[in-house]
């Protein structure tokens, strides 16, 4: 599936922020949201761009550190699911997140 990501970017606490648009191409429905971000970051790094920063630790759904807002909802659309356990099958081709 292909997705469009709108990611909040801010250089520091006192810097103005803005949303930047990124394309996530050929995303597997079996990937976790964090794995999808890893793939997007690999492309950004390969192009000499700044990767998307996000917190994570265990990636096993235990620590809860991978929390982020997805479409205005903490951890995304699935209740009681951490972002590292949120699979891309929860979204559909063409979604904007």
What attributes does this structure have?
1 helix, 4 strands, two-stranded antiparallel sheet, two-stranded antiparallel ribbon, alpha+beta, 97 residues
Briefly note the structural class of the backbone.
alpha+beta
Strand order in the sheet with the most strands: 1-2
Proportion of residues in β-strands? 15-25%
Give the CA-based shape: globular
Number of strands: 4
Q: Determine the N-to-C terminus distance.
A: 13 Å
Summarize the biggest pleated sheet: 2 strands, antiparallel
Helix/strand order, N-terminal first: EEHEE
Radius of gyration, CA atoms, in whole angstroms: 13 Å
Low-confidence stretches: none
Averaged pLDDT: 92
| Assembly form of the protein | single chain
Determine the number of helices (DSSP H or I, runs of at least 4 residues): 1
**Roughly how much helix do the residues carry, as a percent range?**
10-25%
């Amino acid at each position: 599936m292909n997705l469009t990501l709108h990611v909040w970017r801010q250089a520091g606490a006192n810097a103005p922020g803005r949303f930047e648009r990124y394309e996530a191409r050929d995303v597997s429905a079996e990937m976790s949201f964090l794995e999808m971000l890893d793939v997007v970051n690999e492309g950004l790094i390969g192009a000499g761009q700044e990767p998307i920063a996000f917190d994570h630790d265990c990636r096993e759904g235990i620590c809860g550190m991978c929390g982020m807002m997805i479409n205005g909802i903490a951890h995304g659309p699935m209740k009681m699911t951490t972002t590292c356990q949120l699979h891309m099958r929860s979204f559909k081709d063409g979604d904007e997140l």
